[in-house]
Amino acid sequence: MLKRDIHISNDRSNESVTIGRAFIIYNGGRCIDGENWYICECANGFAGPDCRVNINECISDPCTFGSTCVDGIGSFKCICPPGRTGTLCAEVAGKTPSPLSCLFNRRTYPDKSKWEHECNSCSCENGVVTCSQIWCGPSNCLNNSIYVGNVLVCSEGQTCVIQTDKICFTPPCVPWGHCEDLRENKDTIPYHVDSNCESNSPQLSNNCAKISLIFDKSKTPAGVSVETICNTIRRLPVLKTLSNDQHVYVVCNLHKVRLNAVDILLSVEATKSNNQIDATLKTAIDNITQVISHKQTGSSALAAVVEVE
Hints:
The protein is mainly beta. The protein folds into four domains: 2-54, Laminin (Ribbon); 64-96, Laminin, CATH 2.10.25; 102-131, no CATH class; 208-308, 2-Layer Sandwich (Alpha-Beta Plaits). The protein has four helices and 23 strands. The strands form ten sheets. The chain has a four-stranded antiparallel beta sheet, with helices on one face. Strands 13-14-15 form a three-stranded antiparallel beta sheet, with no helix packed on it. Strands 1-2 form a two-stranded antiparallel sheet. Strand 11 and strand 12 form a beta hairpin.
């Protein structure tokens, strides 16, 4: 409590009257008295001329994911809905990040964990994410009710060209389109391979290897496309070692002559000055050949392969 004296002068009698007034400061506030002025310093969580106003810390809506904010004295508390935890309910219950966890593609993975992302294998080691570097192939730009994957939106200056007949191996296939440049009428799919690593190249470069798969089409399931076969090969474990240190590209095309064959081209970015094929690349293509020949892919389409050239 603060007591202040107010002096009133009487002009006639030259007398001065002192009237005492008491000011009450609430909630632990402190009043500082000055010459004809005073100011109140309020405790944390209170405001107003006499510190009677309780500040609502929930006014900024700090709690997340539908949680309830409970105002306190200079603080607040969030009551989380089922499945959420943390000060602001921003964390998933039971999945609190560990000190060495990894954040990848907006998900948190614990230390020493492994997972698959598209056609690549990833792992978390001491807070660092490492993934194999296999190109997962082109995306379909043709929007239709049958295709269940993500539809690619072509860039400005490109158009979606139907490629279903060019990539369909055993009809009927899902409608498929590739983005092509309008001016050059050229396929702009980012294969990242040079001109000497194409199925019709007269001579392959030393960073490129090729095999041809001969199928018994009577045993091949309907609806299999070239990309179906290619995506299965991209996911083979034998490619993971090769793709840990460098980018790997697997491109597949229908054979130019044989109607029951598909060309598989495997390439890496690293090149050598001599004409010898990259040793690691050769090992990888040999391993792929062995896995397919021994029917170890787990794929019904590749199980119909009768010969590997």
